[in-house]
Amino acid sequence: MAGSKTRSTYRCAECGWETAKWVGRCGECQAWGSVAEATSAAAGPTSRTSAAPVTSPAVPIGQVSADAAVHHRSGVPELDRVLGGGLVPGAAVLLAGEPGVGKSTLLLEVAARTAQRRQRTLYVTGEESAAQVRLRADRTSAVHDELYLAAETDLGAVLSHIEQVRPTMVVLDSVQTISASGVDGVPGGVTQVKEVAQALVRVAKSRDITVVLVGHVTKDGGIAGPRVLEHLVDVVLHFEGDRDSRFRMLRAVKNRFGPVDEVGCFDLGPTGITAVEDPTGIFTERHHGRVPGTCVAVTMEGRRPLLAEVQSLVTLSPNERPRRTTSGIDGNRLAMILAVLQQHCGVRLHAHDVFASTVGGARLTDPGSDLAVAVALASATFVSAPPAGVVAMGEIGLSGELRRVRDLPQRLAEAARLGFAMAVVPADPGTAQGVRRTHTDRMVEGMRVVESPDVATALRLLHLDRRTKHALEVVDGVDRP
């Protein structure tokens, strides 16, 4: 009989989806123009895989030693926090982020800290020359005798460097620039990225080497290349930050050796990257007096409570359709809060332009920051500042009620540590039934905590309701019911 015959298939370069005929749009990830022909060998119907020798015999799980999977500190505390204690020998880590966010700077710092502990480290760059990386190392004081540097774009050469140097840690910048000879496709394509990742993962597992891969991202923020790349590695990290800010955040999307709800904070400066163990001051402003239109929220980034200031501005709109402009706050969430304020609190802004933003480039995705946004909007509307030293936290429902937020004790403890005197929080559902218009006070770590069942009560407690003497007529001369 004839040997294996070939058949033409078409594969998406973005996600690896295959089809028997060419299409202009991928049926899996909906990307246009990403489907190209790929030739593969189709084995006959009688082919089968025979048994092969095992690499090591199967043993009871209780007899397997866990010493090989112990975390080793990387020397960067914020990275260790995200990883759950540090780097694990034999682990494959994928770090993704937008261009210019500081991925290479962070990993060069990690490689230098590892080399300082007399652990040989290999840094392979496929995007820059060795001289360019050396210039960055001089600027960030990352030059060490145990840190080896190689500029390669071929997988075979990278494996040869690993064989010669015998490092304990390998950094590859980036996986999309390395090509494997004898494999179809261009560097960065589905087949190439899959082959490169599989080869490096095998080396990591067989030699107990920690391998860190740098990955590119698409315009939508996802990791470029096949989805199988995220399945092959043990840890997937996202490094994010705004170009206009030096603040950077590291998040774990997947972690086989630790939690995925931790966040690391960094400051990217001209002399390198440094860990920020207390980032609260970045997202708050120190005003000399009470300022209308401001309120401080306590949001949770993973397990870490962060304080972020919300600022708002309300002006009479000259347009038929008023503007709603946000920065760091979800626009749909703002529209919902405005609707609740108008329906349940009498704060009518249908004829006004509304601007809402955060300080320092913070992004408020936690629903627990809804009450702080509502307080800032009401304060800007009535031109009346909330009491000094107050924080607000709580999720707003469509009926105007305040819902409890997670990790409330940790949020209150962080606000008290930073010197805030008063916190407005949702009332306990068990004690708030049937007493919608009442509130309770209590002291927590020297801070007054006021529990409110709904938004209207919270605004009244802060003197930001319709009866405030600094009413809206101060702004536009129009008295409102």
Question: What's the structural blueprint in terms of helices and strands?
Answer:
Layout: E1 5-12, E2 18-19, E3 35-42, H1 77-83, E4 92-97, H2 103-116, E5 121-125, H3 130-139, E6 147-151, H4 155-165, E7 169-173, H5 190-207, E8 210-215, H6 228-232, E9 235-240, E10 247-255, E11 263-269, E12 272-275, E13 294-301, E14 304-316, E15 324-327, H7 331-345, E16 352-358, H8 370-382, E17 390-392, E18 395-396, E19 402-403, H9 408-417, E20 422-426, H10 429-432, E21 440-444, E22 447-452, H11 455-461, H12 473-476
Helix pairs in contact: 7-8
Overview of the molecule:
There is one protein chain. The protein has 481 residues and is α/β, with parallel strands linked by helices. 25% of the residues lie in helices and 26% in strands. The protein folds into three domains: 5-38; 69-277, 3-Layer(aba) Sandwich (Rossmann fold), CATH 3.40.50; 282-475, Ribosomal Protein S5, domain 2, CATH 3.30.230. The longest helix has 18 residues, at 190-207. The strands form four sheets. It has a nine-stranded mixed beta sheet with strand order 6-5-7-8-4-9-10-11-12, sandwiched between helices. An eight-stranded mixed beta sheet has the order 15-16-14-13-17-20-22-21. It has a three-stranded antiparallel beta sheet with strand order 2-1-3, with no helix packed on it. A hairpin with a 2-residue loop joins strand 21 (440-444) and strand 22. It is built from twelve helices and 22 strands. The protein starts with a strand and ends in a 5-residue tail after the last helix. The model is unreliable at 41-46, 431-437 and 469-481 (pLDDT under 50). It is elongated and about 75 Å long. Residues 68-217 form the RecA family profile domain. Belongs to the RecA family. RadA subfamily. It comes from Nocardioides faecalis. One of its GO terms (cellular component) is cytosol. Keywords: ATP-binding, DNA damage, DNA repair, DNA-binding, Hydrolase, Metal-binding, Nucleotide-binding, Stress response, Zinc, Zinc-finger.
